[in-house]
Amino acid sequence: MVSQARFKCVGIDLGTSTIKASFGDKKFRLPSIIGEPNPAGFTSVTQDKSLVNNLVINIEREEWYVGNLANVQSVLKIPLAREGKVKGIREAKIAVLSALGILADEDEKSIFIIGTGVPVATSSTEMKELSKAIVGKHKFTIKNDATGEEKKIKINIAASPVLPEPYGCYYYVLKSKGLRKAFDAIIIDIGYGTTDILSIHRGTIIRPASGSTTEAVDTLTEKLALFLEEKTGHIIKPESLATVLEKGTKITIGGKTYDIKQQLASIARFVTESIIDTLDRLIRNLPPQASIKYYILTGGGTYILGKYLRNILVERGYAGKEQILIPDDPVMANAIGFELVSRYYAKKLSESK
């Protein structure tokens, strides 16, 4: 029998805007992008010397910038997800191994099990292909571009269940509530570029009742940026507004502070109503016997759009307030849930061995 303690269980969420990874107390996020090395060939000059924000992977004789480094330094940038699905198996594999490279030690003796979440529109065939590409023995090098420090990684991945990313949050809620029996649920994962909707009946993902919409945080920030540009005369980057809005409705531009509470509420209402329209279309495909116990709101966009979405769900009679759940950490909930999924696989593998 293989000891369960020998397995290193990791949860990874390959979102459309960020990669999230969870391994015990270690949790981190990366922009969901890889890129070609800077042709100038210089080491980044930055005050942030962390590996997470200066990550380079050398795999199969190719070098890639990953996450923040790719976003800032690469000329050719490749998003890992687009239109609610992974862009390619090869790119997704590079992202997963890059995240593992941060967590793994040189001469790693552990056997890894990786629970991985991908956008909902990713097909079952693509999920199987990605799982197959991840499982096995891998050799690659991780480098910190800011310090030049390198790690030579050799890891063995015994299993890699790949599922739609909101399933991680569903499993997290199931375990955190101490429930032993699966319940019917709708999980709404609000991201920056897309919002994923996952329907679960008796613990099974119902594909026809699941999908995604491009109405998300970026829809909100783009409309707000246009409003602020007209009001202030300054050029506003929509992506910069998302971080500000998580903290409140007051924004300082050109030395002046503006309270956009009214505009935020108006635009947020429009965006969330569009999300609910997609939800309404999808859940018509649920089995007649399905009875939704909880609506679970997750993803980074929950901090901005969560309360508006909750209000509309109640107003339209989808659920009572007590049926709408938001996990403690909606940004990392999927990744934490997939770590729990990988622990389940570790237990099963240790028993079968």
Can you characterise this structure?
- This protein has about 350 residues and is an alpha+beta fold.
- The protein has a domain at about 5-165 and about 335-350: ATPase, nucleotide binding domain (Nucleotidyltransferase, domain 5), CATH 3.30.420.
- The protein has nine helices and 21 strands.
- It has helices at about 70-75, 90-105, 125-135, 165-175, 215-230, 240-245, 260-285, 300-315, 335-350, and strands spanning about 5-15, 20-25, 25-30, 35, 55-60, 60-65, 75-80, 80, 85, 110-120, 135-145, 150-160, 160-165, 185-190, 195-200, 205, 210-215, 250-255, 255-260, 295-300, 325.
- The strands form four sheets. Strands 1, 2, 3, 4, 5, 6, 7, 10, 11, 12 and 13 form an eleven-stranded mixed sheet that branches. Strands 14, 15, 16, 17, 20 and 21 form a six-stranded mixed sheet that branches. A two-stranded antiparallel ribbon has the order 8-9.
- Helix 2 (about 90-105) crosses helix 3 (about 125-135), helix 5 packs across helix 6 and helix 7 crosses helix 8 (about 300-315).
- The longest helix has 23 residues, at about 260-285.
- It is globular, with a radius of gyration of 21 Å.
